[in-house]
Amino acid sequence: MLKDALKGMHVVDMGQYIPGPFATLLLTDLGAEVVKVEPPLGDPMRVFGPLDPDGISPLYKVLNAGKTVVTVDLKAEDGKDQLARLIRKSHILVESFRPGVLDRLGFGASTLDVLNKSLTHVMLSGFGQTGPWRLKAGHDLTYLALTGSLAMQGTEDRPVMPFPPAADHAGALMAVIAVLSGLLRRLRTGRGAHLDVSLHESALALNGLGLALGSRDVDTGRCRDLLNGGAAYYGIYRVKDGGFLAFAPIEPKFWAAFCGAVGRPDLLHRQADPLPQEALKAELESLFSTKSRDEWVALLEPADCCVEPVLDPREVPNLPQVRERGLSPMGAAGVVDPLLPILLAESPPAPRSAMRLSDVEDVITAWSRRE
After folding, report:
1. Which helix (H) or strand (E) holds 357?
2. 258, 337: one domain
3. Per the CB 3.0–4.6 Å rule, which of 32, 169, 298, 305 could disulfide with 27?
4. Which residues on neighbouring strands pair with residue 205, listed in sequence order?
5. Residue 346 pLDDT > 90, yes or no?
6. Would residue 109 count as lying in a domain?
7. Both 61 and 154 in a single domain?
């Protein structure tokens, strides 16, 4: 099992909301023991969105499954002492303070080096530790706006907000890569590392294709390019019952299979129409309006032409592929809990346990016994 990969690794998670907690959640899937250190008022994600009867958000529970949660007041001397003791016993620190905050609390890079010279320390922030925007406030949507990607998605009329939050999750994945790189570097050199990961730059890295087009002065406006709505054969179409189809027969063989399945050989040559293919899109909109979503699925599924229904999240867990692979079980919090999507020898990872509340003394005692 992949739980062997980071078995015995101690992680201090000082992140909030999505990016840091999602990164350390994946580390738990790799076998690390994660202790989430929260201030006295807790992570704001506890009360973000709909709340369960216990007053805690299911989003918080999913992001922190399998972790031990402790409360530490870093404005008090005993709280600083507790954090210092945890860091001495840990291998990895993931934090998402604004640049300079951890220094003001007494845990800057030089102090961390004294406490634990082999620590892999990931600093996850909005814009990074340097540069003119280092202290600038932001959220997922504003980070995406500054990458050029938001301008490229949506309708001709306006951009649309993506879900799940793309910059938050991109930052989390980059943080995991940073952790694993830091651990490998420590194996080779014996030294720890302070690794600077920004949400903005993580999302920027995912928009390499858009930036490449921009550097060639290509029109990257919404509904102009093949991949953002300019091509009739790559888009989203409304159907008779108000549902939608994701339509993507890009390769000629898939377009030909679609044209054959719907009995429209006259459309076969139209795939080569110049972009944006407004006339062809109008014909397809009219065609798709004649049947319901499920009727289209029944007709097009046998053709295997890259057309799928746009599903509601409530429909997804019952898909045969999702059930058989076993990566999205009902979790300990009573909600679907997608696991790390990496199978070892075709075996899905074990379900995550629920988060548990503890205190620093118990954590230190447990970690000391395992040394």
Report:
1. strand 356-357
2. no
3. 32
4. none
5. no
6. yes
7. yes
Q: What total number of domains does the chain contain?
A: 2
68 and 191 housed in the same domain: yes
Give the pLDDT confidence of 91-117 residue by residue, as tens digits.
999 999 999 999 999 999 999 999 999
Instruction: Give per-residue pLDDT as tens, 183-238.
Output: 999 999 999 999 999 999 999 999 999 999 889 887 888 988 889 999 999 999 99
Tell me the three state secondary structure of residue 187. helix
The answer, as to whether pTM is greater than 0.85, is yes
Task: Tell me, yes or no, whether 259 and 194 share the same domain.
Answer: no
Measured over all CA atoms, what is the biggest interatomic distance in the chain, rounded to whole angstroms?
A: 77
Phi and psi of 356, rounded to 5°?
-135, 145
Question: What is the number of alpha carbons within 13 Å of residue 54 lying toward its C-beta?
Answer: 8
Residue 259 domain boundaries: 226-238+244-309
Q: What residues have CB less than 8 Å from 21, skipping those under 6 apart?
A: 13, 15, 36, 43, 45, 63, 64
Strands 10-14 and 92-95, sheet pairing: parallel
pLDDT at 1: 62
Q: In the predicted model, what is the mean pLDDT of the chain?
A: 95
For residue 185, give both structure tokens. Answer: 């570097």
Nearest-angstrom CA–CA distance, 129 and 100? 8
Strands 10-14 and 68-71: unpaired
Q: Are 21 and 63 in contact (CB under 8 A)?
A: yes
